[in-house]
Amino acid sequence: MIVERFQLTGKNALVTGSTKGLGAAIALALAEAGANVVIHGRTSDPHDICGRIREFGRRSVFIAADLADGPACLQLFEKAVEALGTIDILVNNAGIIRRSPASEFPPQDWDEVIAVNLTAAFRLCQLAGNRMLERGAGGKIVNIASLLSFQGGVFVPSYAAAKGGLVQLTKALANEWASRGINVNAIAPGYMATENTAALRKDPDRSRQILERIPSGRWGKPCDVSGAAIFLCSPASEYVHGHVLVVDGGWLAR
Ligand code: NAP
To answer: What domains appear along the chain, each with residue ranges and CATH number?
Structure first.
């Protein structure tokens, strides 16, 4: 039955930045499809996403790690393996954005965005990928990209650079690991109503301009990425490698 190929029963997932926003929606969706999930954030799980996952009858633990700090990736990954035994699915979702004109963009904002959105994602891909290669049982890696993987944006140079790089990284890893049963893909969400876009939604002009350009006529909700995430983490996407699945209400088609 084809619908069975969308099941994640018994799989173990690590979703970074899953205390809220898109990461929380992805973690809950993977759990609903059958996976045990490690929830991750910088300091706490304020919305008790772990508790909601346990209500589905899955295992879930919260692990804190600041991904702006290089060695934290190894600690996070090792603790995740210790908690669940193996990691079959990695979703690199944690991400930050800093806005400022390019001419005065603060170097620390550049460094922090590249560290969290690109360098930490690569390091976690490497750690999870190596473990998957050793086990020989394949695996799934999904990187959360952005429309700014394709477009330059305005006042967000480090974010556009990091998200463009994340898509190229996705393709590079897919080329190396596809033959070993590891699917590396990306999801590029459009304009979604989360904390990440709070500043845009507060600005009446920017908010109106954005809405006018979205063919579906609304901001995305976190749960709009759930189906794409389940698909790319499940056996249903076995022959999908290096793909960027855009979930944007039609923005890029415009
Ligand atoms: P969000 O609501 O701000 O949530 C971000 C998550 O990342 C939180 O769980 C946060 O954890 C975690 N995080 C941030 N910095 C971290 C750090 N240094 N170390 C560890 N964890 C950190 O963001 P979102 O809108 O859901 O975005 C999720 C992903 O989707 C990001 O990669 C973002 O770039 C991408 N995206 C979002 C949109 C959009 O419209 N919202 C569009 C395209 C792509 P704590 O708060 O617990 O620290």
So the answer is: 2-193+224-246 (3.40.50.720)
DSSP 183: E
Closest atom of ligand 1 to CA, residue 222:
26
Query: What pLDDT, in 10s, does the model give residues 120-157?
Result: 999 999 999 999 999 999 999 999 999 999 999 999 99
The atom of ligand 1 lying closest to the CA of 219 is: 40
Q: Does ligand 1 lie within 6 Å of residue 197's CB atom?
A: yes
With a 6 Å cutoff on the Cβ, whether 94 touches ligand 1 is: yes
Tokens of 33: 């499809």
From the number of C-beta atoms within 10 Å of its C-beta (0-12, 13-18, 19+), residue 22 rates as buried
11 and 36 Cβ atoms separated by less than 8 Å: yes
Question: What tokens appear for 200 in the block?
Answer: 């845009």
Q: Is the CB of 194 inside a 6 Å radius of any atom of ligand 1?
A: yes
Tens of pLDDT, residues 176-227 = 999 999 999 999 999 999 999 998 899 999 999 999 999 999 999 999 999 9
Q: Which residues are catalytic?
A: 159
- Ligand 1, atom 8, lies closest to the CA of 17
Quick check: 54 and 60 in contact, CB under 8 A?
Answer: yes
Closest CA to 63 of 90, 87, 38: 38
Residue 119 Cβ inside 6 Å of ligand 1? The answer reads no
What 3-state class would DSSP assign to 58?
A: coil
